[in-house]
Amino acid sequence: MPVTYPRIPLSDRVRDGVAVVLILVSLVLPWDGHSLAAERIDVVLAAILALFSPAVPYILRSGALSGRADLLRTWLLRASFALPYLAVVVTTLVVDIVVGRVPESLVSIDGLVLGSGTAGGFGAGLGVGLAGVLLAAAPRVAELSRVPRGVDEAWRIAAVAVATLIVLCLLLSTVLGLIDVSSGVPTATMTGLASLLVVMIVFTVPPFAGMVMGDLGWRRVVMWLGATVAAAMLFAPAVESIYRPLSGLVFWPAAAALAAAPGVVRTMNQTAPDALRLGVASRALELIAVTGVAGFTYGVIVFLDVESQRGAQVLSLITTMTLIVWSLTAHAVLRRDPHRGRVTALIAAVVFLMIGLVELVVWVVILDAAPVDPVSLGVSFALPAVVLAALAFPSGLQGRITLRRFDGPPGQPRGFAVPRGTEEATPTTGPIRVFDAASVGAGTAAAARSPESVRADMAGSTGSTTSVTAAEPGRAADAAGGRDAESTGVPPREVVSQHVPAEPRADAEPGATPVVQSLDSVPSRAAAAATKSESTPDTARAATAEAE
């Protein structure tokens, strides 16, 4: 049976499975402020069409269709199945902007005033489902050889655009949500709200700024944080709105899904595997420190404004300061001495996980409150897990499932990842060059040739043949030493003759045949030294006169 679609690697299978799970789980989550996703017929139909996107490669791989599939058209077909879902998402956002209104009532959470009963809105089901659809519509590893590089750049730009939407939504929702009730909110509470807003912005901006700069380490961090935010939405579904303060984190999983596309790697700076692992750990420690500083400021403001739960607040301040100091220390040691810094960073990551677990137990068991803040979960659990995953395992275990490494042509960056079982095409767009498979194969074959075959080719391409020229006294001395060794019984070193084109002398007449010295005519170093030591000015003048 003819194969109509290339082999599907394990990474694509995992990506498809995660996409299907996210789309199905989103149906039981709130879509907006009025209904679940499964209660809206437009969302259900769009989700069913989106499920065909990851199924297309497997249908083609099974041989159900005759003829070999065009990979570019296959990806366009899969992407078209995601368009209805995107249309429903955009419609929901527009309805929230037009129909939504300021919250009718206020709820105090940790001294902060948040809205409840918001009309319109967009819920966790929208964010989780959108992440699954974008993950399913991304070009697969097997399709990268035919997908233009401009598509990969567009995928990375889309991830940064969604992150920009998150920041704008956080700012606008906070301003619009409090514009009518600011007179009844204490100054300390407004300050706490502003500090919490800064925490969420700091949690979002650095990773995607690193994506703009092409840092693969920040891409790994974005993927881990997106998975953490999606898990928080699954266990604690929420409904956000442009008119509810601090709304916008619902789009974090979608931004992470765009960054997780395999083609995005081709548009970013390529680094060696070991350097990439150190970079991932360093970026995670940096984000822990920066977010910890903003969180500590928020904790101080809440401590001054709220008089209840003093013990938990003091514990939170102490643990936050510990995160800041230890993350900065581990980051500094890791940059100065990676060998020692690796141990320090691993110990810090384990301590961070233990601190997060203690805080979780205190809030859930003792205070009977569920800490569902995605930022706290990301800093306490996701980022330390990133450090452990980057530094705890040997580098040889990474990149062997679906990728192979090659050095590329001389003078080019090392460690570029190429899908196994696919042929790399010459790029038509994009700033990063993709090496042609033919040139890479030719370079590899040339490197694998033996010295004898190279010398044979040189013999065929040169007109004159010689063993060693006069400009190579060192090699001639080795040969002379080999002849002398015959009389002493010591086995001579192997002398390999080379075919070198003879070069004419500088004082030779035009058209004269260049003089070639054979191996026997070249004296050894010892003989040359002896001749030089025995020569006198008289003998030199005699030799000059004889030559004249």
Automatic annotation (TrEMBL):
UniProt region (Disordered), positions on chain: 404-432, 446-548
InterPro entries xref list: DUF7937
Keyword Cell cycle: no
Domain DUF7937: 12-397
Protein name in UniProt: DUF7937 domain-containing protein
Compositionally biased intervals (Low complexity): 459-480
Keyword Transcription regulation among record annotations: no
Pfam families: DUF7937
Chain segments annotated as transmembrane: 43-60, 81-102, 122-142, 154-179, 185-209, 221-239, 245-265, 285-306, 312-334, 346-366, 378-397
Domain of life: Bacteria
Keywords of this entry: Membrane, Transmembrane, Transmembrane helix
